[in-house]
Each structure stands twice: as structure tokens, then as C-alpha cells.
Amino acid sequence: xxxxxxxxxxxxxxxxxxxxxxxxxxxxxxxxxxxxxxxxxxxxxxxxxxxxxxxxxxxxxxxxxxxxxxxxxxxxxxxxxxxxxxxxxxxxxxxxxxxxxxxxxxxxxxxxxxxxxxxxxxxxxxxxxxxxxxxxxxxxxxxxxxxxxxxxxxxxxxxxxxxxxxxxxxxxxxxxxxxxxxxxxxxxxxxxxxxxxxxxxxxxxxxxxxxxxxxxxxxxxxxxxxxxxxxxxxxxxxxxxxxxxxxxxxxxxxxxxxxxxxxxxxxxxxxxxxxxxxxxxxxxxxxxxxxxxxxxxxxxxxxxxxxxxxxxxxxxxxxxxxxxxxxxxxxxxxxxxxxxxxxxxxxxxxxxxxxxxxxxxxxxxxxxxxxxxxxxxxxxxxxxxxxxxxxxxxxxxxxxxxxxxxxxxxxxxxxxxxxxxxxxxxxxxxxxxxxxxxxxxxxxxxxxxxxxxxxxxxxxxxxxxxxxxxxxxxxxxxxxxxx
Length: 483
Prior knowledge:
This protein is 39% helix and 21% strand. By secondary structure, it is of the alpha/beta class. Helix 2 (66-82) runs antiparallel to helix 4. The longest helix is centred in the N-terminal third of the chain and has 21 residues, at 99-119. It is globular.
């Protein structure tokens, strides 16, 4: 069957696909020979056209009735829920996340739209008394303008949803660039949005490379704000360019998240938390716990069971209901994972299990989860973000040593601890420099109605999600009036 050719969505219409001279093949990492769909790549000219459409449409959308915005967002969320199985299957095929995890991601995307449908109706103004007699003060929030959204490949529908929904909620127009590895989920979302009642030009989808689409978005004077999720290196470039022209910028970047397991931890809870946080979604989460810090009292029992549990994980096709871990997203990422595994061996760490590419008739990009012991803090596998199913374990003496090790990182996204000690749990929650802290829970796994984000090299700018998204997607005006 010949794959369907699809295109970007600009100014209320999907772009004519007659020009197929520059096509992007969307391949299934469980079966790389399968082309799911093909996409006509957007270029700089189409990007500028989309920005112009967004610029023209934004003022009227900002002045729209809040009920209209609420209805549009709720309509989008409702259709995503109705089509959840279809969208989850598509997501699993193009990104490699197993179907049960893909279903959770689709549900989260839908709930984000529904949350912001209600947020559109919440009163947001403030009224103050002036220190001067006979003067009143109103503090109001207004749309920023045109928002450029650059999303990563690892959550191809959830991350776009939690950026697009608040942008539209607060009266902004959107130009959205998904990662080229996952265009199908983005296109499906755009197709749903196209039938939601949103005026033409308020939402635009551009499927194309960063060097033309992304760079134009970041540099264009009519793009008032950039929300970016991706690597730290690219994020710093985005910030540098955006800040030079005084555009608002919001960055979510890398993580090298620690999980502490203390001697008093419930062993079964610790194992579940470590396995889920480290290896699920093939370890391809910025919130994954890729650094495991274990105190010496529990270390022998915990490691013995952890090796057993890791070896028992089934790696295979993302559409197989019995699969625990799907494929790595593409060949380039697989090569990166393998290079890190080799660096761990070269630096003297012990590979307790995993780290092997599985041969499969489909040619799928399958890698068994790798567990490293005898790790030292200076090793690359311990310090650098890998973004794959590779876990490093550091043995330490006690909680103070564990806490110091957890803090020894340039990142600060998520951090976790497994303990039955209220004292240690409360200390960790209070003093951890991470933006999100988990107690007896995996470091990966957050709710849609509360702030998401980190500190240091992990995040920059206002938080994403929940009511806190208002800080990025609006600007504040203070008005004085004499009575």
C-alpha cells in the first residue's frame, strides 16, 4: 500500500501537496522498512506565510468571547478522547512507545485541552486601591501575540497539547513545528484542530527541518514568544537569538535525574519505582531516572533483585500488548545509546546486564535495557543525558552522601527518593534543587494541572502547565484611573 502524502496546515487549510520534490518519510522504529506516511517539507517561504497568517488572525482571536475559546478547546479535547485508541496506535507506530503508554499520553493531551477550556472562563483580573485618594487600579492580562512552538519527538502529542492549549486559551495565535521524527501525531492533532471552529490563521502547523522552519520561527520579528522543548545545546541557541530581539522565551531542556534508594526503603516499592522511572518509554524521557543512588545497607539485596527485574523486561514491537519496552526512536539515537554504553565500559563501569541490540526479522531498533554497576561520579554515563534505556548505579554510605550525590549535576528537572523515613523525605523535598521532587514515586510521571519544569540547565523561563502557564502566555497591564 502506497503511503499517503500529507502536508502542513497554514491559514485555515492544508497546503497543496502537488510538489513532492522534498518528501519526509515517517518510518516505524519497530519495523523501519514500513513508511507510515510521507510529508511535504515546509520551507522558509511557507514558514513566513504561516507567521503572517498568525499575525493577522491574532488580534481578533484575543478579543474573542472566552466562551468561544472554551468551546474550541473542549471540542478538541473531546475528539482526542473519542479517537484515543486510533491516536495511540499511530503514536506507538511512529515513536515506539508501547500502546499502553501511548494511550496514557493521548489521554493527557486531551485533558490538557479540557483543562484550558475551563481556564479560559476563569476570571484573571485584579483590582487595587491606590495610595492616592480618588485613584483606582486595574491589573489585567493580555495575549502575548504570535507564539512559536517547537516540540520534541519523545511525547509527540502530549507536549504539543500542553503548549498549544494554553497559548490558544489566553488569546494567542500559534505556529507549531513538531520534530521531523514524529509528524503523523502532529498532523492528526492539526486535523482535529482544523474542525474545532478555530478561525483561520490562529493555528498553523509546519512540518519541516529546524534549519529552515525552526530558525525562521526563532528569528522572525512577528513571533512574539517561543516555547521550546529539546536539547540543552539547541535551547541555549534559541534563547540567545530570541532574547536579542526581546521576544519571550520558555525552554524545557535536558535532565540527568537522580533517584535515591535508602536503607529503610520498601524493597518492592523501590524496584517498581526504579524500573518504571529508568526504562519505561525506552528511557526516552527528560524526566527519566538515569542516575540511581543506593545506600550500602540495602545495596546487595536491591541490586540482586534489580538485575532480575531488568533482565525480565520484554523488548519488542510497540504494538505487541506483551511488550514492556519498545524500540529506540531511530538509528541515530540507537548509535548514541550504544556509544554511551561503550564509554561506560571503557571508563571501568560493570555492565551487569543488557546493552545489546536485538536482532529481529523486522529490523526493529531494539536495545535491551542496560544496567551499570561500579559507577563513579566522573563517568560520562553518570553525568551526561543519554536519552535511552541506560541506568547507572552509584553506591553511597548514607543519606547525607546520597543527597550530595543527587545534587552533583548541572541539571535540575526531577529528583526522587524512596524511603519510609518522614524526616528524610521532608528534608529531600525542602532542599532538593530540582524543580519537581518525587517521594516513593518514579521521577517520570507528572499531572497536567500543576506546574512542570526544572532549574539550572534543565529549564529557563516561566513554568509550563496548569494555571502557571498564564505567566508565559500573557503579559500584564496596570491601568490607573481617576474617579
